[in-house]
Amino acid sequence: MNLVVLSVAGSIGAVCRYFVSGSVQTRHRSDFPIGTLMVNLAGSFGLGLVVGYGALESTLTLALIGFLGGFTTFSTWMIESLGLRASSPRAVLNLTLSLAGGVLAAGAGLILTN
Amino acid sequence: MDGFGPRRLSTVVTSPRRSPRRPVWVAVAMGGLVGSAARAAVGLMIPGGDGVFPFEVLLVNLLGSFLLGWYISRREQAVSGPGSTQFWAIGVFGSFTTFSAFSVDVVELLRSEMVGEATLYVGSSLFGGLGVALFGRRLGMVLR
């Protein structure tokens, strides 16, 4: 049952990621991967909220965790950073912004619901 | 000129359809199902494990990054069907890996005052992720 919930929720999360990051990126008009950055920060904040709230046994919580797992992506972040040429300032920016932003967003979410 | 005259109609009927039969997001949804199921098969990976090192998240993130790197280089060399990138890159590997759990894990490790572990986790995720993605891409170029 957990598998089904996580799979379906993750699938929905992936589709949302596709649309949200796609529209953010289109509006941005540069090749800096701001679309991925946005979904990753938002998803980190969201998971912080969920984990901070607790109730980790409930199916809804599992669905939210699964959704956010599909909504965010680590692999795309890596590939897009390499695409900016790993040593370039923009790649470093993408890496540090995502890392710091993600941790801060997750922390904020945790604090808010804890 | 009538757009529905016989000449135009024959062009519409015989020329290949430019848009896929299915919307592209369906490919993302299907890939997302596969990737999420695969990740769930590895483990539930619910953060906040009270000082447990997040090996499972690290595993899926490194494996997913490697596979995506490999896929990207294969895609560059060969023509794939429409929706292939959406299915594999955005759907499967995008969902198999997770950034949200990674971020929360870092915070939880820091909250448990496991700064060394947090540093190791970030370092291995970041440099490991870049390294295996690059390696996957190289491998995809070399292996046919």
Structure description:
The complex is a heterodimer of chains A (114) and B (144). Chain A is mostly helical and 114 residues long. Chain A contains 5 helices and no strands. Chain A is globular. The two termini of chain A are 28 Å apart. Chain B is an all-alpha fold. The model of chain B is unreliable at 1-18 (pLDDT under 50). Chain B is 72% helix and 0% strand. Chain B has helices at residues 6-14, 24-42, 55-77, 84-96, 100-111, 115-142. Chain B is flat. In chain B, helix 3 runs antiparallel to helix 4 and helix 3 (55-77) packs parallel to helix 6. Chains A and B meet through helix 1, helix 2, helix 3, helix 4 and helix 5 of A and helix 2, helix 3, helix 4, helix 5 and helix 6 of B.
Quick rundown:
Chain A has 114 residues and is mainly α. Chain A has five helices and no strands. Chain A starts with a helix and ends with a helix.
Secondary-structure content class of chain A: mainly alpha
Q: Which of globular, elongated, flat, extended, rod-shaped describes the shape of chain A?
A: globular
The topology string of helices and strands of chain B comes to HHHHHH
- Low-pLDDT ranges of chain B: 1-18
Rg result of chain B: 21 Å
N/C terminus separation of chain B: 51 Å
Largest sheet of chain A: none
- Please trace the helix and strand order of chain A, writing H or E for each element: HHHHH
The biggest beta sheet of chain B reads: none
Beta-sheet strand percentage of chain A?
Answer: under 5%
The overall pLDDT of chain A, averaged over residues, is 94
Q: Which quaternary structure do these chains form?
A: heterodimer
Instruction: Give the strand tally of chain A.
Output: 0
Beta-strand proportion of chain B: under 5%
Number-wise, the strands of chain B total: 0
Structural class of the helix and strand makeup of chain B?
mainly alpha
Cα gyration radius of chain A (Å): 15 Å
Helix content range of chain B: over 70%
